[in-house]
Amino acid sequence: MVMARIGSWVHAYTRSAGVWIHRRHRFRPTTSGGQQFSVPEPIFEANIPAAPGLFAVQVPRPWWLAGGLQPIHFGASFDLHRELMVDGHDDFVAWLAHHRSTSGLYLSICVMDGPDHGARIRESARLRRQYMPRHAHSVDEFLHGHSDQRETILAQALDGGIETQ
User: Model confidence at 130, in pLDDT bands (50, 70, 90)?
Assistant: First the structure.
């Protein structure tokens, strides 16, 4: 009886310690838009091959949601290692400025040797449109959705810019 009480106390103690003490998350490989990405790793600890492919930068979801990671950027590269680890990506500061990046930035990669770079760029644009529709539209796509205002917007832009109020 005493052993059972001690055993349950130890179990409760270790369980609560696991909640309060930071543990490393275990993630699984992800599939985004039909592309198989690697297991998400912290961006500063990731082993990135020197190969062409796609990459996804992700941040943890808020604790009140189901958990997991949310993509904040999809990109394509000729050489993943050189762009992400050696030269640094142009949007790196924007990733660090994301409001949930304090909980970690994670990187998943998808090595794509077969298609040309144009196909990789089109695939990353398709993934951005699918997962981040507010941030992924070009000016032409915006104007197509606002075709009734197209001539007015273009005329204002050509006459010296669009005034903001």
Answer: confident
